[in-house]
Amino acid sequence: MSVASLGYANLDVADMPAWLRFAGDIFGLQAKPREDGAVDLKMDEYHHRFSLYPAATNRLRSIGWEVATPEGLLALVEKLKAAGHKVTEGSAELKAERRVRDLWRFHEPHLGLETELFYGPSACNIPLNPGRPITGYNTGKLGLGHIVFSAADPRAAVAFYIDMLGFRVSDYIIWEDKDATFLHCNARHHTLAIMNEFGPLKGGDLNHIMLEARDFNDVGYAYDLVRDAGYPIMLEMGKHSNDHMQSFYVHTPSGFAFEYGFGGRTIDDDWQVRTYDQPMLFGHRQPKSAGQELPA
Ligand SMILES: [Fe+2]
């Protein structure tokens, strides 16, 4: 039994206006303000994929893994309980807030992540009304996108997601001082990646969330927009060695990055695990290299 996809992410944000500008102007996400001061962000047919909560400090409040069926959800809950994890049913209020049919929650101990498992999200037939003109996002059975964390003990964290939530290894990339394991739970090349601690990133820190456009032009227009508006770029446009995603990375107002990608390849039935020695085929340079003159 496996989770089906990354369903949603809930963020405490210290600067709501900055987040709404960023999400709407750059990524075209549709803001849906709630009466409690939080703002839901819609990106596809789901009621929302992100909820932003006004807060004193930025933090990832929780994430939601979608399970395809009610039977599958309860089977995962029982498996976690049998392994000694404290799993509790979400309140009726929380289920309504998340717009899901059923929801259970637990504290994932390796990344320290408040984790929700759900099925039956509210789908909406009203088309996306994007914050800027975009073609839209490649979601559906592939889920929201992918999410990448550092872990204090990456081996233990990877084992948890494989043994408890049913992920499978896609591949590994080991380069410089970094060691990353890429994991899939559907045809998306990876929905979760777990890295070692490096630079300022400690165990449990969120590195980035990837949103995949349906059209490369959506990414290209956004690349111009972030540079024109002066948003801090984490990695310039490039193409990844493992999932072939063509993307760039921009820091969100919370500090972690959004990767805006297109053209990621999918996992097929005869997938074979590889180990790569660099994350990019080309590009994905840190901005300090921007504008460097060609060698004479
Ligand atoms: Fe990524």
Give the SSE map:
Blueprint: E1 5-13, H1 16-26, E2 30-33, E3 39-42, E4 50-54, E5 59-66, H2 70-82, E6 88-89, H3 92-98, E7 102-108, E8 113-119, E9 146-150, H4 154-163, E10 168-175, E11 178-184, E12 192-195, E13 206-212, H5 216-229, E14 233-240, E15 246-251, E16 257-262, E17 274-276, E18 280-283
Parallel strand pairs: 1-4, 5-8, 9-12, 10-17, 13-16
Antiparallel strand pairs: 1-5, 2-3, 3-4, 6-7, 7-8, 9-13, 10-11, 11-12, 14-15, 14-18, 15-16
Bound molecules: fe (ii) ion.
Outline:
This protein has 296 residues and is an alpha+beta fold. The chain has five helices and 18 strands. β15 and β16 form a beta hairpin.
Please give a structural write-up:
19% of the residues lie in helices and 35% in strands. The protein has 296 residues and is an alpha+beta fold. It has two domains: 115 residues, Roll (2,3-Dihydroxybiphenyl 1,2-Dioxygenase, domain 1); 141 residues, 2,3-Dihydroxybiphenyl 1,2-Dioxygenase, domain 1. The strands form two sheets. It has a ten-stranded mixed β-sheet, covered by helices on one side. Strand 10 and strand 11 form a beta hairpin. The structure holds fe (ii) ion. The site of fe (ii) ion has 5 residues, from strand 9 and strand 13.
